[in-house]
Design brief:
This protein is of the alpha/beta class and 186 residues long. It has a single domain, classed as 3-Layer(aba) Sandwich (Uracil-DNA Glycosylase, subunit E). Helices cover 42% and strands 13% of the residues. It has 8 helices and 6 strands; from the N terminus they run αββααβαβααββαα. The protein has helices at residues 4-12, 46-51, 58-69, 95-112, 122-128, 135-138, 156-161, 166-182; strands at residues 30-31, 37-41, 78-81, 116-120, 143-145, 148-153. It has a 6-stranded mixed sheet, sandwiched between helices. The longest helix has 18 residues, at 95-112. It is globular, with a radius of gyration of 15 Å. Residues 41-45, 48, 54-55, 59-60, 81, 120-121 line the site of uracil (URA).
C-alpha cells in the first residue's frame, strides 16, 4: 500500500480518465489524516478545481456550517470525493470515471481506517453503500460495511436549492456527532 505522500503525488499525476485533460487541479482530499470520520462527496466543482481543496464553494460553506453546528469541523474530519477531478459543467460523474478514480479513495480509506463514513449526497451513497440508494428515504440510516459505520446525508448543493430539507439534514448531523461521541472518536 502506498503512503499518503506517494498516493497524493500519483493522484496529482493521474491520467486514468479524460478528466485529466480539463482539470486545473486534482482535488485529493483534506483534513485530519488521524481522524476516524471520513466525509465523501461526489466530485470537485469549479471552486474546488481552482483551489485543489474539497468543498470550498457555496455547498462547502454550508457543509462547514453543518459541521460546526454539531461540534465538528473540517479540521476534525477528513473530506474527500469519489472523483478527484472536476467533470465539465459539474455534470454527474460517469460510471467509468468513478471506477477509474475509486482506487485512490479505497487507498485513502485504508490509510485512514475510519470508524464512520458519511456519504455526502446520492452519488456517493450509491457508489459506496448501495447502488439503489434512495437518498430522500434512506438518509440518516446507518449501515455496517466491513466493520465501518456508514450513513448518507443530503448533498449541501441540494439544500441550497431546497431550503426546506435543512432541518432534517441538521438532525442527521446531530446523530452523526452523537454516534462519533458514543464511539469515542470525537
Ligand atoms: N460537491 C462535492 O460533492 N464535492 C466537492 O468537493 C464540492 C462540491
Amino acid at each position: 500500500m502506498r503512503d499518503w505522500d506517494t498516493l497524493l503525488a500519483d493522484c496529482q499525476n493521474c491520467t486514468a480518465c479524460s478528466l485529466c485533460r480539463t482539470r486545473t487541479n486534482v482535488v485529493f482530499g483534506r483534513g485530519d489524516r488521524a481522524s476516524k470520520i471520513l466525509f465523501i462527496g461526489e466530485a470537485p466543482g469549479e471552486q474546488e478545481d481552482l483551489s485543489g481543496v474539497p468543498f470550498v464553494g457555496a455547498a462547502g460553506h454550508l457543509l462547514d456550517d453543518l459541521l460546526l453546528s454539531v461540534g465538528l469541523s473540517r479540521e476534525k474530519v477528513y473530506i474527500a470525493n469519489i472523483l478527484k477531478c472536476r467533470p465539465p459543467n459539474n455534470r454527474d460523474p460517469l460510471p467509468e470515471e468513478q471506477d477509474a478514480c475509486l482506487p485512490f479513495l479505497r487507498e485513502q480509506t485504508a490509510l485512514l481506517q475510519p470508524r464512520i463514513i458519511v456519504c455526502v449526497g446520492r452519488i456517493a451513497a450509491a457508489k459506496l453503500i448501495d447502488p439503489g440508494f434512495k437518498i430522500m428515504r434512506q438518509h440518516g440510516q446507518w449501515f455496517e460495511r466491513r466493520g465501518v459505520l456508514m450513513t448518507a446525508v443530503l448533498h449541501p448543493s441540494a439544500l441550497l436549492r431546497s431550503q426546506s430539507n435543512r432541518p432534517l439534514t441538521y438532525l442527521d448531523f446531530v446523530d452523526i456527532a452523537e454516534r462519533a461521541r458514543a464511539e469515542g472518536i470525537l
